[in-house]
Amino acid sequence: MPADASYGGPRAITEQLLRGIYRRSAAWLCDSVNMMPIADDPRWIGFGPAEMGISCAMNVGFGVPLRDESVVVGGACLSYCDADLARLRMDFVADTLMPLLLSAWTGARCLLYLPVGEEIIVSGDTIEPDRWRILGDQLEVFIDALAACVPGKVRPILVRTDDSAVSDAVDDAADEVAHYVDDRQLGSLYTFRRSTQVRNEPGIQRLRQYRRSISSYLPRLIRLFVGDKSVRHVVVAENLHQVKAVSATRSMMESRADTLDHLAHVPPPSVSGTNRMARAAEHSALFCLEDADTQRAKTARMTPHVRRYWENVWPRREFSDSPLTEADTTARMFGLCRTLLQQASSIASRTPVVGGHSPMPGTFDTPGLVNVTKVHDGAD
User: Fold this and answer.
1) Which of 251-254's residues contact partners 24+ apart within 8 Å by CB, and which partners?
2) Distance between alpha carbon 28 and the CA centroid of its chain, in Å?
3) Is the separation of the CB atoms in 234 and 259 below 8 Å?
4) Listed residue (265, 307, 321, 312) closest to 104, CA to CA
5) pTM here?
6) What is the pLDDT of residues 121-179, one digit of tens each?
């Protein structure tokens, strides 16, 4: 797969990024979680994130999603933003774009979870639930705007987990997790290597969040939320840090007719490249709404491989009909994200909240189930 020769190709880019984040080689990480690298697989020729070393691994026996037969699933985390749009980190953008790009490239439908419900559960009494719901309204508009940047303007099916019917369905499935994954296994679900530091064990609400995350990948739930009983193939397009959760979901699948695959991308790196953006200290994190001068100063501190990652989260080929067809630089990409998010906040603030959801243009209610974004045919 082609990549800028100065970076050594996609395999070298992936290796540098993963070693920086996990202190382990890509081969060690893949072996430890039963994944395989995609760098030499000809099936990914033409898929920008794979050619640039961002998409990095897949499960053994992976099947490329097919139009009308598969559903691509994703959902970026909202951790550490405290229901404050100004604290939303750029990893949300990268983790949202990867399933959208895979969906656009393959023609398969895309379902995106907006995990507002999980944040309400974990934050408890510390943050008012309505603050999370308002953030959810803003992010609905933002995700729509991001999707519109992808050629073909394929709109995702957006599932908000704070919707009562959705939450009940996910909780019902999550209750079954205990039969397959005990609390000790849940506690290590997002750990790749042993830490030398004393780690606090996850609390009751955090474990509930983990169970809900595992169950959300189940093909039977995807069929429910998509409204298509024929769906048998689900492809999770989430970062490598979610691999144990996807694997745990497979242990719960009862129907042999169902297939759950995982195309993993490198977790969005911090400015220093030594941690995931989601967990980075503020001086090493990129915030979507921070001013251009601050972002420019942080960009200047990036290593070449980290900068390469952020330059190519929006591959030029995939965004051939977007405003990024000119100079594709980190400053331009960050500026576009800032503008889209500011516009989303303005639109959402002018729309009254009804039942926890803003009745945004282009949405409809599936009776008794979920407020989801209507799947368009590419024409707006």
Assistant:
1) 251/180, 251/181, 252/176, 252/177, 252/180, 252/214, 252/215, 252/218, 253/218, 253/219
2) 23
3) yes
4) 321
5) 0.88
6) 999 899 999 999 999 999 999 999 999 988 777 789 999 999 999 999 999 999 988 88
